[in-house]
Amino acid sequence: MPRPTRFRPALSRRARLGATTVAALVAGTAVFGVGQATAEHSVPRTDKEIPNLTQVQDKIKAYYGDTVTADGEHYASPHSNYARQVRGIEAKARTYLSKALARHDRAGKQSEPAKPAIVLDMDDTTLLTYNYELQVGFHYTEESQDKYLAHTDMDPVFGMNRLVNWAHTKGAEVFFLTGRKEAQRDWSVRNLKNVGYGVPLDRRHVYLKNKENPPAYLPCGATCTTVEYKSGTRKHIESLGYDVVANFGDQYSDLSGGAGDRTFKLPNPMYYLP
Question: What digits encode the pLDDT tens for the residues 165-207?
């Protein structure tokens, strides 16, 4: 988030999935890697090459274990294939971080190395957008996003709040790096606090995109691509004396561009951000 119109050809920053990709995601093996949403740029030669929109949506709902409350709200199930896939990724991240943070701790007793840090995207990495997506029928607009975020807290991505809090107790500094606009800061911080992210959430630790007043450390300024914005900000974090030992995101554009020892890709078949 921010994103273009849902389930339409990608005319700006977001592209939709094809049936092959979605089916692979549901099975846990995406076309370019586990859980990756990818764009399809070729022009269909016949209608048979175009995924059926209703079937794509149904597969996404099945993957998330769509649960409908009495008042008609949609939520992802903690027993879904999505939740199981997320838990597997988190288990690998915890194993890796246990070793990486222990190495930093041992090195810190001998010298003064860079402090270990983890960097996390927000939407569908730490906060789950599924309820919003279903509420707007996969039809994103800036207006609907603002209205939702102003009054509603998104659930945490299953288990990510526990993983983040645990990493922080083990010595990792935690940074959130999102493409959300600066005007959504208060809502975003409120949401993170309310769903159990017990880590510092001040301006030093939560980075949002500020097109009106872009930071000087980003040479691309207000025209940054997602990769330029995120990798440039990670490099800035490292310039402050941190070693980004792990970088978490649901898009490959969250993870590309360097400035991170290891990346962890969270699944997201709902949208693609180049």
Answer: 999 999 999 999 999 999 999 999 999 999 999 999 999 999 9
Tokens of 103: 């190495």
In Å, how far from its chain's centre is CA 266? 7
Task: Mark 59-83 as b/e (b = at least 16 C-beta within 10 Å).
Answer: bbbebbbbbeeeeeebbbeeebbbb
* Distance in angstroms (rounded) separating the CA atoms of residues 264 and 267: 10
- Predicted TM-score (pTM) of the model is 0.85
40/42 Cα distance (integer angstroms) = 6
Encoding tokens for residue 45? 């030669």
Cβ-contact 117, 242 below 8 angstroms: yes
